[in-house]
Amino acid sequence: MVSFRFRSSFLVRTYLVLVSSLLFGATTFAAESPNRPNLVVFLIDDFGWQDTSVSFFAEQTPQNRHFRTPNMERLARQGVKFRQAYACCVCSPTRSSILTGYNAARHGITNWILHPDKETSAKTPHLAAPVNWRRGGIQPGEITLPGLLRERYGYRTIHVGKAHWGAHGTPGSEPMNLGFDVNIAGHAAGSPGHYHGEKNYGNKEKGGLTEPWGVPGLEKYHGTDVHLSDALTLEAIAAVEQSVAEQTPFFLYFAHYAVHTPIQSHPRFMSHYQGQNFPGTNIPIDPIEARYASLVEGIDASLGDVLQALDRLDVARNTIVVFLSDNGGLSRHARGTSANGGKANTHNIPLREGKGSAYEGGTRIPFLCSWAQPAPEEPQQAALPIAQAAVQDLPIIVEDLFPSLLHWASAGTANPPLPRDGRDITPLLTHHVDAQAVREFQQRPLVFHYPHHWNGGVEGGYQPHSSIRVGDAKAIYFYENRRWELYDLANDLSEQHDLAEQHPAQLQQLATQLQILLHDRNAQWPYDFVQHEDEPLRLP
Amino acid sequence: MVSFRFRSSFLVRTYLVLVSSLLFGATTFAAESPNRPNLVVFLIDDFGWQDTSVSFFAEQTPQNRHFRTPNMERLARQGVKFRQAYACCVCSPTRSSILTGYNAARHGITNWILHPDKETSAKTPHLAAPVNWRRGGIQPGEITLPGLLRERYGYRTIHVGKAHWGAHGTPGSEPMNLGFDVNIAGHAAGSPGHYHGEKNYGNKEKGGLTEPWGVPGLEKYHGTDVHLSDALTLEAIAAVEQSVAEQTPFFLYFAHYAVHTPIQSHPRFMSHYQGQNFPGTNIPIDPIEARYASLVEGIDASLGDVLQALDRLDVARNTIVVFLSDNGGLSRHARGTSANGGKANTHNIPLREGKGSAYEGGTRIPFLCSWAQPAPEEPQQAALPIAQAAVQDLPIIVEDLFPSLLHWASAGTANPPLPRDGRDITPLLTHHVDAQAVREFQQRPLVFHYPHHWNGGVEGGYQPHSSIRVGDAKAIYFYENRRWELYDLANDLSEQHDLAEQHPAQLQQLATQLQILLHDRNAQWPYDFVQHEDEPLRLP
């Protein structure tokens, strides 16, 4: 992989420089400038584990045949496919983990944000959200991934699309206050007002921003037929072109608003789904599901355009691309139910439930890490342990991006480690992972902390919970009914067999680890208290 | 009061030195050594708000007539009596707050300690104690009050009696590892093996320490009729004499084992109670209660002996004495029930319940702060706002001792503030408290955090709880049944009228403040989890 490639070539260069320094007394070593890789994080919103023609499960599913994502397939062919990658069960927590390297329990942005003083958890009679979870989101002054990439390593840091870090009206709502040099279309909202240029992406007909939902900064496409996903792609590529022209390494954080609600069509791709039958059946694809699939194909086309641009600009061989979603696929509502079996909460099958849930459908995400094939005229790179078309089953979690990207950016130079919850995934990017790394990643506890009601329901794991995965064992604690559940993901991926009563000792070990980690991270807890309707909660 | 006295005289001296420096170019200012006051913290164990002839309530109670504490009366006459002073509801948390200045929610030693890996909470079917509360207690390396007094201000720091900071077998069980120069009879245990010299204070008959309960270090009194309280007093006075002889300011932390269980007699005082009727009644004093009262009179005699020694050594006028208990009076068992009305849980009346409870009987403590009357030949001191026989109704809490003692020790020199939960109570030690200080202390939230079952019972507030007092309002949250209660202490000191339903808005405000403070202090929470009998909890 690239990190090894540049590290190796850097070592070779360093050796030569050192040798020549010794021979001729030169002091060029310190002046040596490493060839830093460009970094692309391609983040899709609410994009489920099965919403792609790339299979992340052991076998092809009907969903894999339904969706068309050829560019994800290309990425999987030229890189590593992580089949057990995790994010938080909703969006802002994941995005904050990417930005800070902290687990959600620690950074405290445990639910999606919008207004700094407004609760976004569903209302229920009992068990309110923690009173001071960080509704305001990330704010200037915090150490961020783009800030470090810029300040330590001289990257041009480009934000495109959905930001959703700082709440409306706060400085953190502007990505340029959080370490980005460029902000294209990002602000506080986590959903676009509209996907269609004809609708000005949700802004007023006669100009001006419609807060909080109107997508900002894309005025030149207003009134056109350019879909939001395409407008963002055009702007992202233009920003990359500028960086390449300036010979500056770039960090492109390209976070599509798609495929979040509102589920509106991407017209270029609707004919693939509208009026068609679901693959292998004579069931017509539900109209909402057809629009959803067109949105998915739209972001895949965007990915293709970006990869093509990297090729065209001749930087693909020095660019690492990470593709992921910010949480499990939306499954409970709004996507229609007839296309894939007629039931709600089936969109992520074989995973249980979807976005917002404690179960795997809520948190397991598609994750690809890739870089272009080295050209044949660069033979020294072929010997490097660069995995192509590799499948990785060791679990990773979204805060791992922070140390990983910093490692890749360091390009073999000093990379002072920062105390973060994430772990550098570089050792997993080969076909033959070191045995020590296997043990470490297998035994590492992954923590999920969602002390909120997502939809107010009483089933499906959408209630306040914390969970932990160690090895293949996963324990979930539901705060409302104080219930522990225990699953063996190796033999029960769909979490149908709660083993809590059969294996109390194992559950206790996991529960103990979870509590220690939550306390270490100063987690905030759901709380019962009297909600007085006349006097809404005021934070000091 | 003394802090003003020395500060004023210091300022006068400073002025003179500065003037002479300016006139003669001398540089004696830096060499000026302020006259630091000696500091005595006289801490009684499990000593209730009503276990004294000093009334801390608005009126004299039968209990006040039953107990004989003339030396406390003297202290109250020559100082300030705090009628709304608080500690934690059990001992180690309070002692750790004194040592560190932190609230129990922050220092994490939320229950009494004994062995580093043994849970001391009562066992109940549900809601186990936080898995990683600090069962090991305070350990070397933490910043402690005696350590600061010694290092910053050159105090000789003397520990006498019950330590109970570090668990058995840990370095923290030895007070000399926590900032004390001298340790007399302190170790891990919070209870003496026996109070009687004839029983070697709970140690083996033929010598050697009986762990964990045998009181260490008093071998010379073994086999004698010297009561433990008297042995400690003799040793404390000897240590003070040595400091005075060496002209070193001293911090005497004198923490009696009494009046903790086992409730054994102090024979010198038994005749005052044994076979006597309870005052104003023809009810014979219960035998256990008689022994208890003799223990109380024993510690009062000890206080008298210490005060007399300070007089004899001519240091009383430069010694601040603080008298307090470590939690509410033991009321639920072991003290007998016939003496004061025939019911359990009545010993702290008018306060509700006792040690271990969320109610006032669990946390409100006797608290006196005093210094000797200045001699008439020191007229400049008479003008200082030293309160004599003052009563202070502004609430204070035990972690306030840390910044207060540091302030007093600083003697007007620089006293860099440390970020601690406690607040310097110096402004409250006058008859006429500054209006700003009144507001600040009235509005300051006091937090209590006890995520443990004390006795496993289901009534009396002995279940896991957190509570907050602001002004006269007090809100309690019980984790087990998720119940909030609200009391108006000004009009309902006995907490008989739960106002939660009548005043939800006020409750919500308090609940909000409590949650914010608990999170700020990284509090640990009780948790349900499967207790697997065959596999006891193992901490990593």
Features:
homodimer, four-stranded antiparallel β-sheet, nine-stranded mixed β-sheet, 12 helices, Alkaline Phosphatase, subunit A, alpha/beta
Can you describe this structure?
The structure is a homodimer of 540-residue chains. Chain A is an alpha/beta fold. Chain A has one domain: Alkaline Phosphatase, subunit A. Chain A contains twelve helices and 13 strands. In chain A, helix 6 (145-153) packs parallel to helix 10 and helix 7 runs parallel beside helix 8 (287-312). The longest helix of chain A has 26 residues, at 287-312. Chain A is globular. Mean pLDDT of chain A is 88; it is low at 1-33, 379-385 and 532-540. Chain A binds chain B through residues 126, 130-132, 477, 482, 484, 500, 504-505, 507-508, 511-513, 515-516, 519, 522, 524-525, 527-532, 534-535, 537-540, and chain B through 126, 130-132, 477, 482, 484, 500, 504-505, 507-508, 511-513, 515-516, 519, 522, 524-525, 527-532, 534-535, 537-540.
What are the low-pLDDT stretches of chain A, counting only 5+ consecutive residues below 50? 1-33, 379-385, 532-540
Order of H and E elements of chain A: HEHHEHHHEEHEHEHEEEHHEEEEH
Fourth-level CATH superfamily of chain A: Alkaline Phosphatase, subunit A
Main sheet of chain A, how many strands, which sense, barrel? 9 strands, mixed
CATH architecture of chain A: 3-Layer(aba) Sandwich
Average of pLDDT of chain A? 88
How many helices of chain A?
Answer: 12
What name is given to the CATH topology of chain A?
A: Alkaline Phosphatase, subunit A
CATH class of chain A: Alpha Beta
Of all chain pairs, the largest interface belongs to:
A-B, 33 and 33 residues
Q: Which structural class fits the helix and strand makeup of chain A?
A: alpha/beta
Query: C-alpha Rg of chain A, in Å?
Result: 23 Å
* Oligomer state of the chains in this structure: homodimer
Helix content range of chain A? 25-40%
How many separate domains of chain A?
A: 1
Strand elements of chain A, count:
13
